[in-house]
Amino acid sequence: MELAKSAQKAWARTPLWKRAELFHKAAAILKEHKAPIAECLVKEIAKPAKDAFSEVVRSGDLIFNTAVEGVRILGDGKFLVSDSFPGNERTKYCLTSKSYLKTNKKNIEIRNYIPCFNGNQILFFPKGLISCVTGKGFEIGDFLTMHLGVNCISFIGGDTSIAISKKARMIPLQMVFGGKDACIAIPGRC
Fold it and tell me: Where is each Aldehyde dehydrogenase domain found (predicted)?
């Protein structure tokens, strides 16, 4: 947790233009190597080749667009340019605990975690900005969602997520909608 917190602070100090530049480079690398990445998706999770290529390209587009929107939304307005507005401020404050329960760990799609990079730290992969915590959900789930160092919880839905939300205390929650037909059902409107 301490390593993730210190990495988040360093990331928060990184100028917005530099973060956007890194996102653009990552998107370009992803698209440049779409064939071998798509091949991995085909071999590891039996995704149809056409869908795998499409996912890699869409993921690259999402990374690129996240950078563009990050500059637009997080711009602090010191200069009046089209991507910033004075008085609009978003604070980079949290260590996010990402919960991937009952999903294929080899296919954690970019759309599930890339938005967190605008200002927050994600707890789940390699050393530094992204950290990896491995183990069975019932062993580490409560630890990750109830740890005092976590400022936000992001999850994907289902019964497990309801249990997580009940244990979350006053920690902000972020629901990630996946799939091509995501929707919100409002009582009396269906």
Answer: 2-73, 125-185
Residue 134 pLDDT exceeds 80: no
Residues above pLDDT 70, as percent of the chain = 53
Helices (H), the chain: 2-13, 16-32, 34-45, 49-74, 137-146, 159-167
Name the domain count of the chain: 2
Full domain range(s) for residue 162: 132-178
Record the tokens describing residue 164, joined without a space: 């997580």
Whether this model's pTM surpasses 0.70: no
Residue 113 lies in a domain: no
As a whole number of Å, the end-to-end CA separation of the chain is 42
pLDDT at 43 over 50: yes
Taking each helix axis as running N to C, give the angle between helix 34-45 and helix 16-32, from 0 to 180 degrees, rounded to the nearest 10.
70
Domain end, chosen from 20, 55, 84, is at: 84
Assess contact for 141 and 100: CB atoms under 8 A: no
With a CB cutoff of 8 Å and minimum separation 6, the contacts of 113 are 98, 122, 124, 154
